[in-house]
Amino acid sequence: xxxxxxxxIDIGVQPLCTGEPSLLVIALLDKRSxxxxxxxxxxxxxxxxxxxxxxRHLERDGLVSRTVHPTVPPRVDYELTPMGATLHSTISALxxxxxxxxxxxxxxxxxxxRRVAAExxxxxxxxxERQAAARVALSGRG
Length: 142
Prior knowledge:
The protein has a 3-stranded antiparallel sheet with strand order 1-3-2. β2 and β3 (75-80) form a beta hairpin. By secondary structure, the chain is mainly alpha-helical. Helix content is 63%, strand content 10%.
């Protein structure tokens, strides 16, 4: 655990439960540089916007470098920086853990979503009953 508040770096390398693909990007870039489209295909379900955001954050943090080649259309390659490469063994363990637990995580999310929906329905029903009782009380005064 960090001694103080979480820093941007702490938050940037904790995407495991938030759905951000940072861990997978770093794991994929370990062997070689990849183009945006290759990363997009390799990470199932990531939107272009989310991948772009993730790559920008990783570049800003000094973990990934971006090279634009002057071709038509432009070719952009991403690769780990030396600092980014030092994270690979740690991230590999997290990626393996995530893969091993993805079914349990999905089940937990489903359970949570159902519970929250049921709580919301109960709160909405109680509010509707309260409003109906208030209308009855007000109509009796007239």
